[in-house]
Structure formats: structure tokens, C-alpha cells
Amino acid sequence: MKGYHLGELEELILLTVGILDQEAYGVAVLEEIKNQTGRKVNISAIHTVLSRLEDKGFLKSHMGGATEERGGRRKRLFTLSATGRSAIEEVKSLRNKLYDQLPPLALDFSHGQ
Amino acid sequence: MDSKLKHHPPKWPDRFLEFYCNPNRLEQIQGDAYELFYMDLEEKGLRFAQFRFAIHVLSFFRWRNIKRTKSTYHTFSQGAMLKNYFKIGWRNLIKQKGITFISVFGLACAVGCCMVAYLFIAQIWFRGLNQPNKDEIYQLTYTAEGENGLVTYGSVAEPISELIPEKLNQVQNQTRVLRDFPILIYNNESYQQRSIYIDPAFMEMFTYRMDYGFAGALKDQDQVILTHELSEKLFGDTHPIGQELELVVNGEEKLYKVGGVLAELNDMDMFNFDLLVNIESHPYSTEDMSLEDEWNSELWTFIQLNKGQDISQFNSGLQELTDIQNQINPDKPYLNMGLVAYSDLIYKVDEIENGVRDFLGLGPQILLGSIGLFILILAVFN
């Protein structure tokens, strides 16, 4: 299999969209990332990544409800696609596989002398 | 909620966003920007929110979000088509190497010819036209009876320049220009160099940038000004100012010091020269000549008017000069004298004998240009 090639920010945003479930749009993803990781990401970067992920087929989107704060403009709501979910799974299992191969943490004095 | 909706995002960035943004994406992007604006407004106040809004609008200015004239689907299919064309074209080129060579080589030659023709004509037309005083500089000419009718000459009798301050008052500057090819001797080696012998006022009328020294150096008769190229050729890396060289004119040697070096000319010059020398140091100026001989020798003579002066006021003065010349030198009568604007000299290539630009008339220039174009067209259709 070819693999999914997710960038770091792509992975983060893909996960956040998954967490937000039906309520994922630009500002919501921004806020969620800020709350969960303390990281301030630029809104335009989020938009770019979201549309790139959609191009890659990891996300699906539709236009959602309008609110007053948005000047009556609708949100584009993103949801994980099946491919997106399996991409997350694969990345995670790859991480875990590598993590499991780390040698156990032990105090090794052999180098110091 | 109501209180914060009293404020609106700043107009200019908002309009800019609407201007550039792809309509498919505008709604979501603008909506998010508004939402962030009101969040910032609540947390940090109006100024900050407005500033952040502008920053957001700028950061949304990305390739993906910019409006395009063609839809993405359209460009995609056209891209594939073009790719196809290129692929087939390339295969044909590879397949028929002989024909390819002829076409490519022919086109290259044609472009080369065209460029040569263009450069040739351009250097005639555009040279010297950057001179800041070009609108105030005029060349003196005279018209005389020739074998085939009237002929206008670009040079006038040399003593006329002495009479200019008297007869044509309010002339700001004047200079004579004498071309010569003296032998230049430096370090026991001799070179033949194009020189122009000029009055020091020349350097005030025409502007040149200096690498070393100063433009007034020619006021001293023992000093010369070299072009950048000549200075490099003679002195290489050594400092040129104060170096001594000799010029030999008509067998007479004369010692000069380098008083200045011009920067790269970059088409600032109308004249072709390698060095500038004060005309008073030319043997011809120091020689004793009979009055008639003096009037028979002709030089280019340029005058510079004050800004905004009209040349028609010189008509009577020119007439007086004509009369004086005809009195002293009746063998070679002038019909009348005239002034030709410096910037018109190029257009009058064909009309002025012995002028600054006597070397390729308009006709040959057009011929050369059209030959170049013709070759290019042939090669393009090949």
C-alpha cells in the first residue's frame, strides 16, 4: 500500500476534525487546537490544510448553518471520510510500532567512563 | 450580543477580501474572519480586532484562495492538452533530426541577424539622447550652392566661434569640436586613438559621469580626459590621474597629463571618441595662418542657449555672421546660416553634409531593418 503521507499539521487537524465530529469548521478547529494543545495556528493555514485534506479525500464537507457572528454567512463543515479515518489509524499504528521498538529506559553508565 | 454587533470589521480589508477571493470560498473564509473579529473584539477591544482582521485578510491571500478567470476544471483539461501537444512536438523533433536542425539553426541565425540590425539602428537613434541639456544645444550649419543645388553643411568656418559672443548674444555656452586621430605614446608604445579637440565649455554643455578627476580639467591646456576603456587599456590598475602621455599630431609631439577619466559612457555620447583634449593645444590653433586659411578651415560648432530661449531671435545675428564670412572669404559664399537642434541631428542625417551623423542615411537604415525582419519572418514560417 502506498501510504498516506500526512504532515504534522495535517495530522493534527485531521484528528481535531474527528474530535469535533459534526461541528468542525475553520474557527472551531482553531479554538479546539488552542484548547487542547495550547498552540496558536494561523486561520489561513487551517483553511489551506482543510481544503488540501479534502482534495486528498480524507475529509468531506458541506455548507452548514449561518450565525449572526458570521454576518449571516454559512460555515463549511468538515467530517472525516472513511479514508481519513483509516489514515489516522495507519499513522497511529505506525507510531505505536516504532514506539514499541524503543529500548527500555535504563541507566547505562558504560558510556561515561 | 447586540452590543458587539454595533461594530463592524474594517471596510477596506473586507472589500479587498471580496475583491480577490474565489467566490466558491468567499463565504466560509469571510465568515470565519468575521467570527474571529468579534471574538477578538470581545477579548481585546476594537483596535486590536480591526488590526487582526486586516492581518487575517492578508494571510488569506494565497494561491488557493485567489479568484481566477478560468475554473480549475478548465485549466486542468487544457493543461493535459498542452502537455499532449508538447509531447507530440518533441517526438517529431527527435524523429526528424535534419529538419529540426535546419529550423532551429535557421531561426537562431534569423534572430541573431535581427538583433544585430536592431542594435545597429538603435545605437544611431538612441545614442546621446540622455543628455540633460539636449533641448538647449544647437549646432551651427550653413547652406551653400553646390553642384547639384543647395547643400547644408554641419561645420562652419572656425573663426565664427570667436564672433558668437558678440553677434549671438545670450548664448550660454559654445564649443568647437575637432576630430583627429593623433598617435598616442605612453610607456614607449604607440596607439592610434580617436580624439576630439574641444573647448572647455564642452564639458559644461554635455554631461558625463566621471570616474576620477573632474570635468573642468580641460581648462588646463596640458590635461586630457580619457574614457574608461582607454584608461584601463593604458594604465590597468594604476591610478590614472597625473599620468603623462604624449600625443603626436602632424609630426608635432606634445606632452599631456591625465586630468580625468569618464565613467562608462552608456550611450551618453553623440560623438565617437577615446579622449578629450583642449582645442587650444592642437597645433592647428597655435599655427599662424593667413586670415583666408582660417576661414577656410571648418569645425563643428555647438551653442547652448539659456532655458526657454527661442532660436528665432538669432536670425539677424546669423545673417550678420553670414555677411562677415562672405566679405572675408568671397570664394566660398554662404547663402545663409542656421541652427539645428541637437535632438534633431539624427533625423537630418541625409540633409547635412559633414555632420555629426553622416555615416548611415535613413534609407540604408530602413533597408537594414527590413532585411533583418524579412529573414526573421522567413525563418518563422519555415
TrEMBL record, chain A:
One Pfam family from the record: PadR
Gene3D superfamilies: Winged helix-like DNA-binding domain superfamily/Winged helix DNA-binding domain
Name of the featured protein: Transcriptional regulator PadR-like family protein
Signal peptide: none
Residue span, Transcription regulator PadR N-terminal domain: 20-90
Residue runs in coiled coils: none
The species this protein was found in: Algoriphagus locisalis
UniProtKB/TrEMBL annotation, chain B:
Residues spanning the membrane: 101-126, 359-381
Alphabetical keyword list: Membrane, Transmembrane, Transmembrane helix
An annotated GO cellular component: plasma membrane
Boundaries of every MacB-like periplasmic core domain copy: 100-320
Pfam families: MacB_PCD
One example GO MF annotation: transmembrane transporter activity
Protein name: MacB-like core domain-containing protein
